[in-house]
Structures are given as structure tokens and as C-alpha cells.
Amino acid sequence: xDSKKLSIMFGTSLALISIFxxxxxxxxxxxxxxxxxxxxxxxxxxxxxxxxxxxxxxxxALTGSTLLAMNDxxxxxxxLDVVDPTLAGNDIVAIRFDNSHxxxxxxxxxxxxxxxxxxxxxxxxxxxSITQDTTIHxxxxxxxxxSNNFIEYSKPLSSGDVQDFSLSFGDTxxxxxxxxxxxxxxxxxxxFGPNCRIGLSQNLxxxxxxxxxxxxxxxxxxxxxxxxxxxxLQTSAxxxxxxxxxxxGIGLVLVKRK
Length: 258
What we know:
single chain, alpha+beta, 8-stranded mixed sheet, globular
């Protein structure tokens, strides 16, 4: 095998490590990541979110709900598939971010309210309270299929607005998601991570890893190709680890044989 093919295989192996071998977190757990570009229409189209890790969230009447996230280098995409047989005008999703992933509520940490009529309340922590941004960034769409509300949300990874997060490949951002069905109050059953809205600590947040496309021939593989290659693999980091290790092992053996 020539050296060019070897470098492509080995480079891809190392890139897979960066996507799937999730770094240690200061947060509660539940790491979301993936590569792709969904259509923000409130419909979970076939294959659209297959490259995203999907994790269970919520409890009680909302048991069976899941959360997904991915990016494409330009935008962060988040989807909430929540058990709710009706889409009401006061079903609200609140998302808070730990921009710097330090477990502490800082000035300008991002916050977003998603309304069922497809409106975004883009906000930030002012140092005193959650305050609406001067400029609104982001898009949301929600539809109900008779059993679940499927909510899709997008926001630029880096809008240039100091009141928004600014994220790059390899960054990790904390996330707290709360669902308010029919305008009800937040409870432990409607929050991910558990009770993440309490106080100023963000240690109970989950995490989103901004995935990096693999390197092929020294260049980043286009997002669409990467999403296709990874589709169906990102269901469990536990069973996926041996696959990644095996790929790395093949790369090492080939290097040695060369």
C-alpha cells in the first residue's frame, strides 16, 4: 500500500477518535455530537438525523423523549423529540448554554426560548438576569405527529454577536434543556440535565461536542460525505469504541508493515 493511502487511512482513524472518544466533562453527562445539515421544518425526515447521537431525556409523563445535536461548520442544530400528543400554543422549550464549559454562569452565556409557533427568543445572561439579545439569531420549527412534538432548532456557531456563543470544531458547550408542556412549571421530570435550571451552577448541564470532519489527504472531508460515512454508527459510544480502536489498530499495523 502506498504512503498516500496509508496517510489517508491513518488520518481518518485519528479523526474518528476526535469525534467519538469524548473528552472528560465538568458536567452531568450525556454528550451530544454529530455532523450534518437538517432542514428546519419540524419533520424528522428519513436519515436526516442519523449521524447525530441521540440520548434519552426527561421522565414521568415525558419518558421516551430524546435529544439530538449536530453541526455542519456553520450552524449548531438541536432536535427535541418529546412525548406530547398535542402541540399547544404554550408548549415551550428553554435552552441554556455554558458557553465556556466551565460550570459557572457567566455574563453573556447564551439562552434561548423556543415557541411552538416557530419563534425564537434569543437571550443571554446579563449578570443579573436572562435578558433578550439586541439581535435575534436562530430558527425553529415544530410539528406534532399525534404522539410526539418534534422540535428542530438552528443557530450560527459564531454569529459575531458578543451576546451569542462562539464555537469552533472540537469545542464543547454545556446545555440545559427544559420543556414546559402546556405552559406548566419546570420539574425534575422536564429538565435535562437533572434540575439544571437551579441556581448559578452549570455542573448539571449536559454537553455538546462540536464535531470535526475527518481529514482525508490532509484536507477536511466535506460535511455531507462525513455524515453519510458516519450515519448509523453513533448510537452508543460504548459499542462504538471497539470499532474505533479496531480502525486505529489497522492503521498502526499498516504503518508498521510499511
